[in-house]
């Protein structure tokens, strides 16, 4: 990816367009452990515009209106005496940035690289900012010379999860196209997720992720798995084994195998695949459609390297499928699972965290200029963090890749 330059035109604080009730809102136990910012880039080519206004003006106005319904995003965090966080709905506002790039969208290619130039497309809060001074949401609209633009979103994960951000973006995009309010009413009600739920959602899988270890340099890799291949595997498994597997299970198994093989992990060791699952429908009663808080469970599939690589694809598929089933069943039955002994002393090379961004509703975000043609993470650049980077893989779609799923991941440079 070639470097490009972005000029900031304006940075302002955007409060809700109507006064919001002052309130102190509690976070759930799951919200309280997701204390980090998530950065997302949404790319628009601008060719399907149905509104005449400039993108930055349209989105800024929609932001001020949607914050009336999502007032926590305009508030600030506060520390409680017990160490938990709460949200003060102060109406101070979210950050909005308008910017202009000196190139066209082709410079971004397919957003396949975690390039340092992309950081210009996100307004990031300095890492040393006091938690009570954090802006919980920032939106940056960067226009490119071709008429396309990028919306850079940075949100604090304690306020919402990926599905929750999808609801927020859906509401904001509906308002930008003329709606009076979001079609799905936002629901806070974090007491619906009880403190004890954290145990049954298996967040211990995150807790056992080891500290960064230094090893050889890694490089970014972009892999495409075509739907034709996925459907072929589905047919074969049904014909040969009478087993039905989902698209996610097949892609996850292929990624797990490829990544394990590429890192040349000793056959005597174990490897772990971690991924989040939306648990909204597993609650009793199910969480309402408008609930935008964190409501995920953490699944962890584990196997011995030799057994995984020497066995058929079916082995990895069954392990992943059983892991998903167990998380759901154990949560519903309130059966507490303890961390496996296989988790002990697991190195970074042996752990992969798989994120699936395809079905969160982000691609369908239309501010009046058509749906996003691409969505990608924007990772903060941290020096010497290749050992952490190597643990993550991302599944995503793209307008340039309608017939398959793209996986972004890190591989050893020596491959």
From TrEMBL:
This is Uncharacterized protein. Keywords: Acyltransferase, Taxol biosynthesis, Transferase. Pathway: Alkaloid biosynthesis; taxol biosynthesis. GO terms for biological process: paclitaxel biosynthetic process. It comes from the Eukaryota. PANTHER family: ACYL TRANSFERASE 4. It comes from Taxus chinensis (Chinese yew). Pfam families: Transferase (PF02458). One of its GO terms (molecular function) is acyltransferase activity. Belongs to the plant acyltransferase family.
